[in-house]
Amino acid sequence: FSNFSHEIRTPMNGIVGFSEILNTSEVTEDERKLYSGVITESSEMLMILLNDVFDLTRLRANKYRAYVVDFDLNDLLYNLFLDYQLFLHSLQR
Fold it and tell me: Most exposed: 13, 29, 59, 64, by fewest CB within 10 Å?
């Protein structure tokens, strides 16, 4: 539960903090675009986390069904690499 608490607070701090910054008059248009991007990414991270929690809840209640599907492991790993590369690049801006 403590890990979960930390995982929720991280994107929430991004959403709340950058939303407050956007409400100040000193923010340039370029900064607004950057900060709104952080809010969007933080919101998406939070949604993914909440969906994972809901999935775990369904698994524990035996209300979640897993199905066997074919997939390309190389393609999956490459897409994960691209997603995290974009995420890490956005943090460096």
Answer: 29
Give the separation between CA 37 and CA 75, rounded to whole angstroms: 27
Instruction: Write the pLDDT tens digit of every residue in 42-76.
Output: 999 899 989 988 888 888 888 877 789 999 999 99
Tokens of 76: 């999956």
Q: Residue 46 in contact with residue 54, Cβ under 8 Å?
A: no
| Cβ partners under 8 Å of residue 63, min gap 6 | none
pTM over 0.70: no
How many other C-beta atoms lie within 10 A of the C-beta of residue 18?
A: 22
